[in-house]
Specification:
56% of the residues lie in helices and 6% in strands. The protein has 178 residues and is mainly alpha-helical. It has one domain (3-177): yst0336 like domain (yst0336 like fold), CATH 1.10.3560.10. It has a two-stranded antiparallel sheet. The longest helix has 24 residues, at 39-62. The chain is globular and about 50 Å long.
């Protein structure tokens, strides 16, 4: 079991109860400056990021990703992304192209274009490195939400995420005929 799975299951948000979950949601809505390096807050963020990843993976497993709309401004995100990062290999991401100092300088203006347009554009989100694989510790990187949207919208439109959908569809067809 990965760290992500362990955090999101066993002692996850469900164990907090309604009041605890509401308090956690409120805490997560406060600006980062309101906190130091609070380990409990980091765990809550990790759980929220894991839940987002799990929902997204289930979505692309059950709906043809070519038809998914992730935000109200998918067209704008996709156009800006491909204009800025036209050569980026989105099928298998190189972490250096997202995390190196040079990459951060290139991504920052792109990300900031979406401040006020995409809710929580700079929140942390889990992103798969190889789009043909599930979220695992080895295949996951922490990225901003707008990076996630840009890359996943491109993967959906360019057909790279279809592998996940097609694989799941075949598996379901095999199970039905057995």
């Amino acid at each position: 079991m990965s760290k992500f799975t362990a955090m999101a299951t066993g002692n996850g948000l469900a164990s907090l109860g309604v009041e605890g979950a509401n308090a956690a949601a409120h805490a997560l809505s406060l600006p980062a400056e309101a906190y130091g390096n609070d380990p409990q807050l980091e765990v809550m963020w990790a759980m929220k990021a894991y839940q987002h990843a799990e929902i997204y993976f289930n979505l692309i497993s059950s709906v043809d990703p070519k038809f998914l709309k992730l935000t109200k401004v998918d067209d704008k995100i996709y156009s800006a992304f491909r204009e800025e990062f036209g050569d980026l290999n989105i099928q298998v991401l190189d972490p250096e192209e997202l995390k190196s100092d040079k990459a951060k300088e290139e991504w920052r203006p792109f990300c900031n274009k979406f401040e006020g347009i995409v809710e929580d554009f700079n929140y942390g989100t889990l992103l798969r490195l190889d789009c043909q694989k599930d979220y695992t510790e080895e295949n996951t990187i922490f990225a901003t939400r707008i990076q996630f949207f840009a890359i996943e919208i491109a993967r959906n439109r360019e057909g790279y995420n279809s592998v996940i959908y097609n694989s799941n569809s075949k598996k379901q067809s095999t199970e039905k005929s057995s």
